[in-house]
Amino acid sequence: MLLIIASRFDTAAAALARRWSDQGAQLLTCESLSRPGWQFDPAEPGTGWLVVDEDPVPVSALRGVVTLLPAVQPTELPHIAEHDRGYVASEMMAFLVAWLSALPRGVLNRPTPQCLTGPGLRAAQWRRQAACVGLPVATVAHHSPESTPPRQGTNPCTGPNGRGRAGSLSAVTVIGNRPVAPFGPLPDSLVVGVGTLASAVGAGVLTATFSDGEGKVQFVGATPSADVTRDEVADAMLATLCETP
């Protein structure tokens, strides 16, 4: 079974599950986390059980997991009493971080404490990491919106960073450290550099955005996610999951 963890509102994730139906793909939403039958032993994670819809499934049956849900929000839990949703969302988030980190089979992406889909870096942290691997990085004014810390309660791993700069944008997605066709023209050296960035931050899925403003192409941001409605992205994800030991 291939497991796709996603929001109940995510129509692209549902379409991906249908696309991979011949691979036994199943969609897991937060509602299934409330079902009885889950078993998780951190010392032996491969012997546990999960519940998809209402069906118990042994963890040993999983061939791979794609995580498309950055964080558990109270809006994902209409079946929980309203005054309890915030607390339950926090508990589900903590459980998924522990469970996904411990799974013995391939997970795209492995979670971090603040982000279920991978490295939850702030915009400035992405730029620093990009500079460290040799990518040309756009400068940001001290008081620009992207240099301001996010409001409390926002999730640093959702949405692209730095899309507010002038100039046309291009982007490249990396799946399993292999570049997928860029969104717009980019020099080969930058495409390779995005793969190096993905390896540096430990992301099996990464999309980096570049601007060609001011007469040069520069890195402006990244996110540990990809557009799964694109054929090449979905196919690369499936190939990566199938080859993961």
Structural commentary:
The model is unreliable at 142-156 and 158-166 (pLDDT under 50). The protein folds into two domains: 2-116, Rossmann fold (3-Layer(aba) Sandwich); 123-224, D-amino Acid Aminotransferase, Chain A, domain 1 (2-Layer Sandwich). It contains six helices and ten strands; from the N terminus they run E-H-E-H-E-E-E-H-E-H-E-E-H-E-E-H. It has 245 residues and is α/β, with parallel strands linked by helices. Strands 2-1-5-6 form a four-stranded parallel beta sheet. Helix 3 (85-102) links the parallel strand 5 (64-67) and strand 6 (107-108).
Q: Secondary-structure map with pairings?
A:
Elements: E1 2-5, H1 11-19, E2 25-28, H2 30-33, E3 49-52, E4 55-58, E5 64-67, H3 85-102, E6 107-108, H4 123-132, E7 169-175, E8 178-179, H5 188-201, E9 205-211, E10 218-223, H6 231-243
Parallel strand pairs: 1-2, 1-5, 5-6
Antiparallel strand pairs: 3-4, 7-8, 7-9, 9-10
